[in-house]
Amino acid sequence: MSLVVATAIALGVTTLTSAPANAFTPPNIPSLSTATSELNALTVDVERNSGTYDRNLFPHWITISGTCNTRETVLKRDGSSVVTGSDCYPTSGRWTSPYDGATWTLASDIDIDHMVPLAEAWRSGAYAWTTSRRQAFANDLTNAQLWAVTDNVNQAKGDADPALWKPPLTSFWCTYAKAWIDVKYEWSLTVNSAEKSALSSMLGRC
Q1: Alpha carbons 181 and 154: distance in angstroms, whole number
Q2: How many Cβ atoms sit within 10 Å of the Cβ of residue 114?
Q3: Cα(29)–Cα(23) distance, integer angstroms
Q4: Among 29, 93, 149, 180, which is 20 to 30 Å from 171 by CA?
Q5: If you compute the radius of gyration of the chain from its CA atoms, what whole number of angstroms results?
Q6: Residue 153 Cα to chain centre, angstroms
Q7: Helix (H) / strand (E) containing 168
Q8: Structural domain spans, the chain
Q9: Amino acid 22: pLDDT
Q10: What sequence ranges are listed for the domain GmrSD restriction endonucleases C-terminal (predicted)?
Q11: Would you give the DSSP letter of residue 30?
């Protein structure tokens, strides 16, 4: 048994080398044909205003229902056997991260990732939005924008687009590209040329 595997077992996390069949995914991930059409419809442009980005311009996490905010809503949606306290924060459950295939039993090990990062959205057109539209984007539960993933994997992604970062599981690249494209399409955001090329290549794995 390798040191990596032994350490993972000791920490209560299992890892996979292929796409996890038991990972929950957000709603409305498009088909390959739809994603291809959407990619072709996106405006190709350079990114702008990166120096003026401020995360506070995208209010999150907002209250969704009762005491549950957006983060807690996604944790309940994308976990299994999730039990929450009166404040809606999970006290137990099981989450499988589709980005890397790791399964976790502590909500604190899970980040809620914005498929299209807030800073990336800003550079791709959200700089011109109203605050209310940016809030809607940051808390979008309708599209495949919010994902429950391993925290350090999300941190490695940062605000990078697919030309600069891809999920560790190559078997997930197809789904990742379809979701990324659809979010950009639904929110009328632009792509740069390197990003579009990377997305097209990732769709080739579908």
Answers
A1: 18
A2: 23
A3: 14
A4: 93
A5: 17
A6: 11
A7: none
A8: 3-203
A9: 55
A10: 94-200
A11: P
Please provide residue 35's backbone torsions phi and psi, each rounded to the nearest 5 degrees.
Answer: -60, -40
Q: What pLDDT is attached to residue 66?
A: 95
Q: Which of 79, 97, 99 is nearest to 89 (CA)?
A: 79
Output the 3-class SS for 127-138.
HHCCHHHHHHHH
Q: CB atoms < 10 A from the CB of 24, how many? A: 15
First vs last C-alpha separation in the chain? 33
Give, for all 206 residues of the chain, the pLDDT tens digit: 323 333 333 333 433 434 454 568 899 999 999 999 999 999 999 999 999 999 999 999 999 999 999 999 999 999 999 999 999 999 999 999 999 999 999 999 999 999 999 999 999 999 999 999 999 999 999 999 999 999 999 999 999 999 999 999 999 999 999 999 999 999 999 999 999 999 999 999 99
CA distance 124 to 50: 9
Output the DSSP codes for 14-41: B--SS--TT----S-PPPHHHHHHHHHH
Residue 171, classified by CB atoms within 10 Å of its CB into exposed (0-12), middle (13-18) or buried (19+), is: middle
Enumerate helices (H) and strands (E) in the chain, giving the number of each: 8, 7
Q: Do residues 192 and 199 lie in contact, with contact meaning Cβ atoms separated by under 8 Å?
A: no
Give yes or no for a cis peptide into 173 (omega within 30° of 0): no
Provide the whole-model pTM.
0.89
